[in-house]
Specification:
Blueprint lengths: L7 H15 L29 E4 L2 E4 L3 H16 L1 H24 L7 H8 L38 H19 L2 H10 L1 H11 L11 H18 L19 E6 L6 H7 L4 H7 L15 E6 L12
Antiparallel strand pairs: 1-2, 3-4
Length: 312
């Protein structure tokens, strides 16, 4: 390829540009980001696996390498799935006090609340298999524990009633295994399936059993969330108190007469249907007929936590 000499004017322009640059050594490169855009995370140090922990009243030491690595996996999954774990930590402030109170009344160990956390992330989730609510009851299991399901209501979505039902279920599991950790695994596997696994393998504890992948991870997920929730800062979560979700301040009222139009009834009472269903997600339709009453619903206690009329 032929190379042509530069024109004198081009050479002069290049020389002037070079001299100007030399006389301005303090000028920063255009590509450099401003100091305010420094995206480096400052708090990157997180705790690892503890040497031991208390779980359902048992002092568990993590000496067995298999146990350590299974717990490590669940810690890492939840530490680095930050959006989900942050939401869980915020919701804990709103929902765990109610759950803790019921567990105490039902004489179930407090650690059982962490099973609820891993089941639903403290939300009224519905699984692909059809399990629903904080405690993920199936439609065929819920009625056995006193939860009503109809076209109008689904008490799997009632936090207090479903928590008491879950306590009854876990106590039933405990009566079969005489061990709370096994009882938790049976919540996922089913007590019959877990007993069969133990029988075939001639073991008596989930830590010693070879299980299907979901059940094999289940107890360790509960343990991992307990460690994170009890000491979030140690695992890299720094949430200010003002960002935690507050408990809804409500009062309970008894409904003895059918409500033909929940939206109209809500407006008449000074609320709106959105608020009523937010506080009572177990109400599925725009009415409560005779098949659903009497029942107790929650309404705002008059504070401004949930505003009724928003300005346009």
């Amino acid at each position: 390829m032929l190379t042509y000499p530069k024109k004198p004017r081009t050479i002069l322009f290049s020389l002037i540009t070079f001299l100007v640059a030399c006389n301005n050594p303090e000028k920063k490169p255009i590509s450099k980001k401003p100091e305010s855009l420094n995206l480096t995370q400052k708090n990157t140090t997180i705790s690892g696996i503890p040497d031991s922990m208390m779980f359902f009243g048992n002092h568990i030491q993590f000496i067995d390498q298999d146990i350590r690595e299974r717990l490590d996996r669940e810690l890492l999954v939840n530490i680095y799935f930050q959006s989900s774990t942050n939401l869980i930590l915020k919701r804990c402030n709103r929902y765990l006090p109610t759950i803790e109170k019921i567990l105490k009344e039902e004489k179930v160990p407090d650690d059982f609340k962490y099973l609820c956390v891993i089941e639903s992330s403290l939300s009224n989730a519905t699984s692909p298999a059809g399990a629903s609510g904080f405690w993920q009851f199936m439609t065929f299991t819920a009625p056995k524990y006193g939860l009503r399901i109809s076209d109008e209501i689904d008490e799997r979505l009632h936090l207090e009633k479903s928590t008491r039902a879950a306590c009854a279920l876990i106590k039933s599991n405990f009566s079969m295994f005489n061990n709370w950790i096994n009882a938790c695994a049976a919540y996922n596997r089913g007590p019959g399936g877990l007993l069969e696994d133990f029988k075939i393998q001639q073991v008596q504890h989930v830590f010693d059993a070879e299980l299907n992948q979901e059940t094999a991870r289940y107890v360790f997920r509960i343990m991992a969330l307990k460690l994170i929730i009890e000491n979030p800062k140690a695992y890299g979560f720094h949430i200010s108190e003002k960002d935690l979700y507050p408990i809804y301040k409500t009062q309970k009222i008894t409904i003895n007469e059918p409500i033909e139009n929940l939206a109209a009834w809500s407006i008449q009472k000074g609320y709106n249907r959105k608020i009523i269903r937010l506080l009572n997600p177990w109400i599925l339709r725009n009415k409560l007929t005779s098949e659903s009453i009497p029942c107790t619903i929650e309404v705002p206690d008059g504070n401004q936590q949930l505003k009724v009329n928003h300005p346009l």
